[in-house]
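[SOLVED] Predicted holo structure with fe (ii) ion

Edit: marking solved, answer below. Original request kept for reference. I posted the sequence and ligand SMILES and asked for the 3D complex as structure tokens.
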Amino acid sequence: MSNLWVGATTPTTAWVRGKVSSSASVRLVVSESSNLSSPAYFGPVAPTSELVASVEATGLDPDTQYHFAFEHNSVVDTDWQGSFRTHPLLGEPGSHTVAMATCAGSVAGGFTASAVSNHPVFDVIRTHPLSPLLMIHGGDLHYRNITTNTPASFRAAYDDLLTFNGQGASARQGLLYRHMPIASTWDDQDFGGNDSHAGSPARPAAQQVYRERVPHFPLAHADAIYQAWGIGRTLYLMSDTRSFRSDYTDTDGPSKTMLGSDQKAWMESVLTAPGFDAQHLVWIMSSQWMGTSNDTWSYYATERDELVQMLGDTGWLPRMCQLSGDVHSLAIDSGTGNSWGNFPVYMFSSLDSTPSGTTNQYDSGPTKGGRGQYGTLQVHDNGRDLAVTGTGWIMQQPWRSHTSTLSRSTLARHDPPPASHVIAL
Ligand SMILES: [Fe+2]
């Protein structure tokens, strides 16, 4: 066994994926007890030629803590034991918290080597008092900046970040993703190099190895990794801003894109018919909505306006927020500073990258560049009102929070949106 992580959890299922030491078949052992007593077994499955085994646990109870391990060659490998909590029932009022962050591993420092990180922040998130259900990684899992079509390089990057270059089962990042399900999209440094786009030679290898290695929600496209899922009455939509991206040097206009036409059509279909009683939208992406540099939406302004129109037409603008990263700082805008949709914008970065992006552009005050930084989003849903609190954290310390309260009338679908954001900065 050389790594193991969990992701794509639902009220009744979870995907567990890991790399084993031989081609012998693998079973997933799942128990409500940390000593794995009275387990349920899933599988067996045969590992791939890369010795990666993926097993789905099904038929689980909602809102329940589970523990798991792989059984390989008749041995349950408890050195690599993990845990997860299933989601509350989909479409029902369900309060919950998710963690979100981006950017780990730029420039060698105290906790980074070979462009992957082993920062103590991963332990802080894993043991967080708010017990996040999910770790949403908004890009730059590593900074290998692979610019060639070499799957082996991407595989090595995942191996190294999960085990921190040989530290194995105690590596902090691997430990986090083994005890908190991951939902992960990429940014440039873990896709095809700095400011990379659809033309990156690394694109096929990035796509292939993401599918081999990363536990993920269902993918709607063979050449992109955008995903959507629900928790309670919240719809989470995670964009892929790299697979179809135009070069930032292209002239802005209707054909210049960050998401691509297939992704936008998919997005509109999900926003129109989420498939459950979704009352609140969390839009996740790596790129900066309000930033001004060449890798941000300001260089794709025509498409940004088009997306605001789509979010308005489908009724989401008054009951949504956005989680993003890219620049290595914390930032919160309650919506008044967001001229493109007026929804709250949270930038939760960086886990462990060179601090950057100090600006006064956000209405809650100056941004905070740094490492050891991440965010939480708490959704309080009592069945009537729905309150959403985004908090930036610097290690164990809360940095700044904002709460939006969506009243009953705002939540009623197709009603005229009164946009009753209660600002509590
Ligand atoms: Fe980054």
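OP edit: Confidence is low (pLDDT under 50) at residues 414-425. Thanks to everyone who chimed in.
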